[in-house]
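Technical appendix A lists one of the benchmark inputs used to test multi-chain prediction within the project. The record comprises two sequence entries:
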Amino acid sequence: MATPILAAAAAEPRIERLWIGVRRHLAPVLEDGPLADRLVRFRGAGEERSALLERRPEAALLLSNSFGAALRVFRARVPVRAGAALSGRAPLLTHRVVPPSRGGRRVPIPTAHLLRDVAGLLGLQVPSLEPSLHVAPESLARARGLAQAQGIEPGQPYLVCAPGAAFGASKLWPPEHFATAIDRLWETRGLRALLCGAPAESAILEAVQGRAKSRPALVPAEQRDLRLLSAWIQDAALLLVGDSGPRWIAAALRVPCVSVMGPNFPELTASSLEHCRVVRLPGLPCAPCLERVCPLGHHRCLRELEPERVVAAALELLGRAG
Amino acid sequence: MPLDCPLPILLRLPSWLGDLVAAEPIVRALHGALAAEGRAGALSLAGPEALLPLFEGRFPGSPRLAHRGRGAENLAAFRGHGTALLLTGSLRSAWLAWRAGIPERIGLFRDGRGPLLTRGHRPARAAGRGIPLWPPRPALPRPVGQAYAELLPYLGLCLADAQPRLELPAAAEEACLGRLQSLGLEPGQPYLLASVGGRPGSAKALDADSAAALLGPLGAELGLPLVLTGAPPEAAEVAAVAARLAARAQPPRLAFGAGSSTLPELIGLARWAALFVGTDSGARHVARAAGAPTLTLLGPMDARHSAEHGRRERTLGLGLECQPCGRERCPLSGAAERRCLRGFAPAALLPAARELLALPRSPPRAQGAPGPASGAGAAAGAP
């Protein structure tokens, strides 16, 4: 979602030097693109602070809403600190966006809108909120080779299924539902599934694979990373995902995507929907709750979301894509 | 997906052309959601009579409630609606919705109208060092279309396609082709379309001398015939520019001749133009939404107000210390007056113009042809 802001900052003539601070495990998403040489990778708060002290930027544009991010640039004495006034960090910022509110409470708006507003604090114009990513030919070739090793031949249409969610258990659609959905798409469209996820999500991937009759492919954990995930998504006919990051990779690569959403506000991610269908269960009094674990213990927002509705959304997208 | 609001809906449209263009995705999303259930008639489009032709031939089944100006709204026609979605910012529009007895009134809480609304929110604002405390709660310069999209969830919708798209109705297509042929332009012949629009003396408009000094050489350098266009109130300005160009032996092919370009005709002129050049005016937004490669000269307005959907647009600004001032009348005098627009030299426009001309032409889409789905399909609930 932040890639349009990064592109605008890179193109801004008033900015003589631009560094893009990014968590080390996320950097591969950007490493094939034109901003790769501007990336400053850090593993944690300590490395981030060291990077700030070493480079002494004149301004920091915070595209993360965390208190910690604001605290680190404050402690590093960055003169201009611009960001959204969230997470209690307003006093740490020199320039801030106060998001839309009612009765003193924040109203959910698309995060992409908020990022553009934050960029505007430094006078950046962001003409389009459409994310963009690049996949290098080498990455694509490697990804195709790994997929072929799992039985997906070059040129064979397939879908990527990313059932994990770093946010928490509350965003996990049950593995049996994912399995049913990918089996149906195999039966109706002949799309074999390639299961992807972080190495730490192997248990979830194996749970889906074990329940699916259509023998989805699963790349070994040590061969999975975000750069390859981008390549696999670029080559895919469809991404089937929960409410998580790969959805935005698909948006950036203009790949049809069905996102299964549970505890989140759909308004928060209501951008780049041209090739995406967000499927959720309406009418639940407890949703959305934004909790990482279902506080009521029933997880109805995702358990009761039938696979057929997800399949229908996928078929509609695939039909439009021709 | 059923909308989460009482029907029918009164959609109160903006009173400025640019804002109305920005509202098109909202209209399309609502109409699409209702039409999918056979209830297009449950959406009423209320707006200025002069601007509603922008949607001529579109949104079938949705009645238009046109008014001639401020104070001329037909309150009786507003009654009977279940929901009012206000894409206007005025206190008056909220008051009228309340007076009409509309139970749900949705909009931005601004200009004192919060108590008159039932759903909505305070707009985003900027705060911090260097940002003035007066006027109170300074609004953040942000695209107006973005603010509109953020109101749709109150009706149960999320916007799937946020790109404004203007279509050319069949009747206007014929009139437009006729207009171009009368100007001596063959079908398919590329031309440079320019708007010199703006109220007389407006800081947002190019004065006649500046416009002629820019457009004449630009058209000559690009090898494109120049077509000038303007709205009816801009007749004198357009004629003045044309006269100056004629004096330079660079006469434009006036689209503004006997009668102004209607809004549908403007859509057509923009659709077929190789390039549109103008200031931050309503015509700019029409041209952009019609698919014309657009070169916009930014004067007093903050670029962040309209910095969206600009893949086929380039904006140029001089970066003066006094910019952006946001004023309708330039507060400076003498040589500095309106320098933010007068200061452009033709050569400064050429690189951006050539870059735009190199873009692939977007093919005209016939009215009613399938486009990206919007509205209800994006956030699917019950099938």
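Chain B touches chain A at residues 1, 109, 120-131, 140-143, 146, 149-150, 153, 158-162, 303-304, 307-311, 313, 315, 372-373, 377-383 (CB under 8 Å). Confidence is low (pLDDT under 50) at residues 364-383 of chain B. Comparable benchmark entries are summarised in Table A2.
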